[in-house]
Amino acid sequence: MAQWEVVIGIETHAQLSTASKIFSGAAIAFGAAPNTQACAVDLALPGVLPVLNRGAVECAIRFGLAVGAEVAPKSVFARKNYFYPDLPKGYQISQFELPVVVGGGVVIQVGQGDKAYQKAIRLTRAHLEEDAGKSLHEDFHGKTGIDLNRAGTPLLEIVSEPDMRSSDEAVAYARALHSLVRWIGICDGNMQEGSFRCDANVSVRRLGDEKLGTRREIKNLNSFRFLKEAIDYEVRWQIETLEDGGTIQQATVLFDPDSGETRTMRTKEDAHDYRYFPDPDLLPLVISGEWVERVKAGLPELPAQKRERFTADLGLSDYDATTLTANQETAAYYEAAVAAAGKPNAKTCANWVMVDLAARLNKEGRDLADSPVSAQQLAGLVVRIADGTISNAIGKKVFEALWNGEGVSADEIIEKQGLKQITDSSAIEPLVDQVLAANAQNVAEFRAGKEKAFNALVGQVMKAAKGKANPQQVNELLRKKLQG
Q: pTM of the entire structure?
């Protein structure tokens, strides 16, 4: 791999959160019986005409503003011609030469801890189009069924530049985009239902080469795990093929999650194969500056703006701020916790949300919305650690009790279970004396210069105090007596 460079670009189809289809009034609710949500326009019956959905256009404008792109004052719908059984018209209405959104970018965070880094991924464009229907190959006795419920569903196709250099960067980009479209309310992001799906264009080239390698497009990846696995396999396959003297043919491939492999579906078409031309049934889409400004006024605070505020106002690191703005739910929970605990406790709140709370939610497969510990309850716990009522170690016990519903607040649990930290030196000192008397060897080792022996003594005192002694006071008393 060291002599090869991976080049990845991603095309994402985000299903827009409108009540009806992009060119008809038919509903788009998921899970309806086949062909019950397909009207005359979707079925391409003779004489029907498409009418553009204003809500879909506003979703595109919201996205363009959110990624810092140009919202085109004039864009054009085109016919993308190809034959497939689930495409009744024989063409798909899309945009080609003049898309509604041009340029823009998304900043991603890759990796964790010391190895984490940020990278800007450029966007080429985003354009409006209609979805096709669906071919069903199961339970039809060797035949194929066609469900046209999805035909005409509004999509925003978001096309990145080939700026990603690893599957980790590709997944980070997909996650950032997934979070953003949900954040601004234009897509529900439900990958299982196909509301957010990615096509990855993957190629490899030798390090130092400027010319891009031949790309293969992996279609319809509907989970972040599959996206990573598919890219990793495809990269290995392409490198092995080239090193064995073979050539890469441009193609569209599918990923098989069961085998973990990609397989060729068809030789990849180029744009000219689709014979694009402006749709004569649709006028150019004209978006006024006033319309853009109205949409802009309704946008929420964007992730990038919130990250900047978290670092500037709350003193968080870039990594913490990025993690806490990964989605709107986490950001809202964190802000509610800080509002209740106070700004001086912002970093401690961040640690509890990102580490303890996130780990427990992950372990139990829960969403943040289902957390048994509210932001206000977590804040109450943080405040009691900050004011010395309990230690951080005892805090974990209180968190566990809150999670299990053993009390409505940290204060109630601390009182009920007698967890208040011992801060009275006269109560800690006898415990220190007992430990020193019972651990002569550790005392001797510490005085001989072994710092680990001191930590062992601290642990013994904390054990004797059942974890409730103030650790700082224990440290101070021990050192005073050992050095006396």
A: 0.84
